[in-house]
Amino acid sequence: MQMTFRWYGEGNDSITLKQIRQIPGMKGVVWALHDIPVGEVWPLERIEEVVKQANAYDLHTQVVESVNIHEDIKLGLPSRDQYIQNYKETLKNLGKVGVKVVCYNFMPVFDWFRTDLFKEMEDGSTALYFDSEKVQALTPEQVVKNMEENAKDFTLPGWEPERLRDLQSLFEQYRNIDEGNLLKNLIYFLEEVCPVAESCGIKLAIHPDDPPFSIFGLPRIVKNKEDIQRILHAVDSPANGITFCSGSLGANLANDLVDIVQSFAHCIPFAHIRNVKHFEDGSFIESSHLVADGSLPITDIIKALYENGFDGYIRPDHGRHIWDEECRPGYGLYDRALGAMYIHGAWDAYVLKGKK
Ligand code: DNO
User: Is the CB of 158 under 6 A from ligand 1?
Assistant: First the structure.
């Protein structure tokens, strides 16, 4: 496995490449061109710029998260073909600099969703929080406004402003799209882009829905083992893979995370590891990576990855905000660095044991 760290780019992240480089065992950054509007081609010169910056710190750029999917592709509108064409061009440009994995998601309207970005925890740190009752009681507009106001001066990853500009009309457009239609639109997209990804040496890795259940009546199609199986079977290509995200799938305790790793290990080029702590009313908070702090079997998941020959990329996922760090919600330096070391520790324990 190779340890990586999500980085938002020069001038767009409070964390420097120098800091990332100093986390033990760190091999690469997980990156994206966050300023290119969704649906547009990523220019090769811009891509090369990031590669050069990271390489100067001995970090590779083999994982991109995310090349986001235009809503017209998810909605299956006639204009999707142009956006799919653009996606292929972006993949070709990424292939030219040696990118190996492109993470993406197929969530309608919003990417990940929380009600509180800085919820105070018992130890005085803050973390991302999903308040189940609040989501049921509020309109999407109210929750989005609340999140944006609370993001302080940071943009939220995966929340492109152009996607959210006209929330109401986006919701209207999804009124006739059920899970079946959405899945068809995903398959249409994959059938088009997988051959291109294959020829560029890139694996596509769909990210699970976060949370992995419908919110505000929107369809969700990457929620559990059955959904993943359906997607992997629908398009038979080595480029058709998944991002295993413990925190997203683990937001539904009915998901058996170890079983999911064991069942799909050969199709997981990229793993996000984080813990979540569940509450009785269905709410959850993103705790530290430590098993004892949350509800997920983090070390069993790492063990399952190890035992199933996982040789992809891994990254610590969202962390808490600790030691008074001012940072992008979920993406500070300190707690994610602790997470990376926790993953390394567990991994090394299995590797060393295996060598005895
Ligand atoms: C949130 C992340 C998501 C995720 C994308 C993948 O912080 O988990 O933004 O990276 O959904 O496409």
Answer: yes
